């Protein structure tokens, strides 16, 4: 699914009105109906109480129309409307409809002192994507009351005060929504860690905007969903053998963190590659063989850390390196020697660089040109910062990574909530699966194993990164259905990879 700018959503909306021959009030009614259905699901069967805070534009119009529908469904509804010199036409029509039904509207100003009845749900319909400038200090008291109330806050389209597609100064007043119902497509700001306290969760509501018009709008940003990754799956063939599914080589571990290599290797095998060989320091031999009999193990001449890469790297379909590897100077030299050897090879396996492999690369900027094109780098935010330097906001972070990927023709997977996969053509895909329970030691190692396995199975690097990130998050989400998020471990993510494959391949789930 595309992630569009506010300007493009407006174009999409306007073109839909023409192509479907409907009025903007009818489209607003459709949006309010979608909101109403979603909120009915949110409250379940019970009668609920709502306080709807409406602005003077179309976001406020949505709030007014929603208020009417909730009232008609028997809920207790209090509607407050910002006083203003003029309202949007759709907003006025919805005010009129409420008057006709004798539903009262209280006036609201930035100075209003409000009392929210206990257990009522606050609906934030103050500003949507029409926010033209950050809200000024005058709005602080009103938004403060909403943000500090103990009531749940549901935002319509976007938390009021937040720009959809450009940086918002976080010192400006912004609604802290518990859940945002956003129309038609995801918005960039809903995906960025900097705004996490305003946007904790969101749900996309389909309001029937015209698909062929969406296809004409171009954007470098995509929201990666099930239907996108299903297209990347390759069917298993009856006469497959272990060679068909590729041989993955996992290089990592050092004294004290051999587990990282075990987790990555297990995850690789559970993702479906035919063979896995782990290359680890000698101290890990018995541990890895004991923990994981399916793996083949090769050891470095040194006991505690990796000091050289094996000669026969062309025997493998994909190599994932760096998990728990450490940054010992010997390991650093070994990586440099590997790059020198790769330069001389006519064809090389696909490569993935994680964790300490990235830390070593960050320490040596002159090696960046040596990383083979189409390699995958999987940094968490701190590793990314070491690699590309600091950024002032998430928009700049994404711009810097896009620039890196174009310049070096590499794929960077920025890990975290809504992991972003940035491709050499500068497309950015934000992942829709995963949960905070996955922020646990070793879960990044599991991701490296999954992506390396998909590379070994013959997926292109871009497909392996997209499918791998989605699958990893999905396994975490399925784990969270039976294990509390706080208790999820990296091993649990591996254990649920099989269900994730089943889920992904089942059209009815
Ligand atoms: N996507 C879709 O298909 C659909 C979208 N729909 C809905 O429409 C929403 C967009 O509506 P919208 O364009 O009327 O803008 P909205 O956010 O209500 O506010 C605009 C008003 O705010 C004002 N204003 C701006 N900044 C300000 C500031 N800092 N401080 C004070 N005032 C400020 C601005 O005034 P001005 O900038 O002219 O001063 C203008 O009067 C969208 O989010 C969604 O909810 C659905 O109904 C149908 C389908
Ligand atoms: N809040 C979150 N929501 C979803 N996924 C998360 C969240 N936090 C972390 N993750 C995922 O967990 C993994 C953590 O990786 P990483 O930080 O490298 O951990 P480790 O080094 O312990 O293996 C990444 O794939 C990341 O996307
Ligand atoms: K809003």
Secondary-structure blueprint:
Elements (H helix, E strand, L loop, with lengths): L5 H14 L4 H20 L5 E6 L3 H15 L3 E7 L6 H12 L4 E4 L12 E5 L14 H9 L4 E4 L22 E5 L12 H4 L2 E4 L5 H6 L4 E4 L1 H5 L16 E5 L7 H13 L3 E6 L4 H7 L4 E4 L18 E4 L7 H16 L5 E5 H9 L12 E3 L2 H8 L5 H15 L2 E4 L5 E3 L5 E4 L11 H14 L4 H22 L7 H6 L1 H9 L4
Parallel strand pairs: 1-2, 1-4, 2-3, 4-5, 5-6, 6-7, 8-17, 9-10, 9-12, 10-11, 12-13, 13-14, 14-15
Antiparallel strand pairs: 15-16, 16-17
Helix pairs in contact: 2-3, 3-4, 9-15, 12-13, 15-16, 16-18
The structure holds ligand NPW, adenosine-5'-diphosphate and potassium ion.
At CATH level 2, the architecture of the largest domain is 3-Layer(aba) Sandwich
Question: Largest beta sheet, briefly?
Answer: 10 strands, mixed
Helix percent band: 40-55%
Q: What is the overall pLDDT average? A: 95
* Name of the top-level CATH class of the largest domain: Alpha Beta
| Small-molecule binders | ligand NPW, adenosine-5'-diphosphate, potassium ion
* Strand line-up in the sheet with most strands: 8-17-16-15-14-13-12-9-10-11
What is the count of helical runs? Answer: 18
Q: What is the total tally of β strands?
A: 17
Structure class:
alpha/beta
Beta-strand percent range? 15-25%
Binding site for AMP: 415-419, 444
Domain YjeF N-terminal: 9-215
Subunit structure: Homotetramer.
Binding site for K(+): 59, 124, 160
